[in-house]
What does this fold into?
Amino acid sequence: MHSRSDDPLDAALTAATARICDAILAVQASNPVVVIDGRSGAGKSSLAARVIRAWPLRTPAQLIALDSIYPGWTGLEEGAEIARESVLVPHGRGLLGTWHRWDWEREQTAEAHAVDPALGLVLEGCGALTPASARLADVTVWVDGPRSSRHTRALERDGDGFRPFWDMWAAQEDAHMAAHDPQNLAGISIRTP
It folds into this structure.
């Protein structure tokens, strides 16, 4: 994995991917669970996609983003609980899990997606790492960065659709951090520029 030395974010994500892949190998399981949490715009989705591409095991892994599950802009906590209950718990028991995609335009649940317990799993999103989900994960990751950088990246990614909800979402992140202390639950902490 080579990074472009002129891009500090790329370098940080490349180094983080290598750390996570090493941790996955250390688990010595064919279907490890990686939970990636962090503030909006910190680089969780980019990191999760890189981990999937670099997945170090023979069997592939599934990627689930909480952005596909949150039931609307006020649903950080509820989305994280849906993922724990419908994805992580069944996966940990060797059972097929099912989650429903949230249709942001229609503001309702949409089609169902299955989660194969025989395959590895990467779950990423704000709110993903709680004491309950940490017990079901093999590798736990916290990603954060400076507020100004995160804000810029989030708005570049999501455009003006996110702008009016930034403060409301940040307040939910603050509540999650106060209630669950995900930074201290994480075995790997990543700081992006």
